[in-house]
Amino acid sequence: MESFDLSNERKAFDEMKMGVKGLADSGITEIPPMFRAPPTILASLKAAHQQVKIPTIDLKGGSVKYKNQDSMTRRDVVEQVREAAEKWGFFRVTNHGISLELQEKMLGGIRGFHEQDPQVRKQFYCRDHTRNFLYYTNVDLFTSASASWRDTIICYTAPDPPRSQDLPAVFGETMLEYSKEVMRLGELIFELLSEALGLNPNHLKDMDCAKSQMMTGQYYPPCPQPDLTLGLSKHSDFAFLTVLLQDNIGGLQVLHDQAWIDVPPVPGSFVINIGDLLQFITNDRFISAEHRVIAHGSSKARVSVPCFFTTFKKANPRVYGPIKELLSEDNPPKYRDCSITEFSNIFSSKEITIPRLLHLRI
C-alpha cells in the first residue's frame, strides 16, 4: 500500500509539470515523502567527508601539441590524464580555452530557464526523448527508491543540433555556441585519452565516441530539509565522457577508495569524468566513478551544466565491445559486445544507483 501511495504521489507530481522548483516556490517547510532518502543513504550523508583534492590538469590553453620543445609538455599531460582516468575516473581541467564569459552566460541561461514564469516553463515539460529538447524532474522518477531534489533540461546538441528558434529564447543561441566549444574540448580530451591507452590520437574519435553530445542543465532549488534527501543520487554516467560546468554553490561529491570526496567548484575550470561506456570499451582500464550531489538549504539555487558524449535514450544500433588492441591473453575481454540501444534500455529499466556494467560482464 505504501509503495502504491508513493507511485501515485510521483504520478500526480509529474502531471503537475511544475518540477521541484514549483514545490520550492509553494513555500513548503517539509519535503514530500517521495523525496525522503532511505536511512542508509542519510547515514552516509552524515559521515565525515575526505578533503582530498581531485587531480587538476592544465591543458595549456586547449592546444596541447607535439611540437619540438613542447613534445614533453604533451607527454606530461597525457601521463596526468592516464593516471587520473585509471585511479580516479574524475579530474579537473584548467586553461582549456573556453572563455569565462561564455561559461557564465551558459549558467545564467540555465538559471533563467528554470526561474522564468512557471507557465512558460511548463510548456516544455516532457519525457519523450525522441524530441531534441525536454524538461522534467528526475530521469528515474518512477524507478528510484526516492526522488532527488532537482529539475533538469535536456538537449541533444550533436550530431544534429536543433535550430536556435526551436530552443527556449532565454538561452537558445548561447547553448549552441557553448555546445561547439565543449565539443572542441571533448575532442581534445578524447585524443589525450587515446594516447594514454597507447593508441593513435584519433582512435576514440574514429570509434564515434565524440560524435554525439547531450547537454543538460541541472537546477537544484533550496531545500527545506536538505538532510533528508539528495540533489542527485549516487550514480555513474551513461556516457563515454562528461564535461561538467558548475556554479559556485557546491555539493558535488565523488566516491574514491570507498570514501566520499568533496569536489568544490573552481571558477573557470571544468570537471571531467569517465563514463560507463568508456570503462566498458577500455575493459576496465579507465574507471567510471560514482558520484552524487548533496541537497542544500542556501537561499540561492545551485546550477550545473553537464555535457555528456552519448546518444543517451536516442536509438543507436552501433555495437561496442572492449577495444581489441587493448586485449591479450593476460587481459581477456571482461564484457560481451552490446549495442548502445541495449545499454540504454538497461539504464532506463533500473534506478540510476544500480551499476549497469554488471549486466554486461562475461
TrEMBL record:
Keywords: Iron, Metal-binding, Oxidoreductase. The keyword Kinase does not apply. Its cofactor is Fe cation. GO terms for molecular function: dioxygenase activity; metal ion binding. The keyword Ribosomal protein does not apply. Pfam families: 2OG-FeII_Oxy, DIOX_N. Residues 211-312 form the Fe2OG dioxygenase domain. Belongs to the iron/ascorbate-dependent oxidoreductase family. This is Fe2OG dioxygenase domain-containing protein.
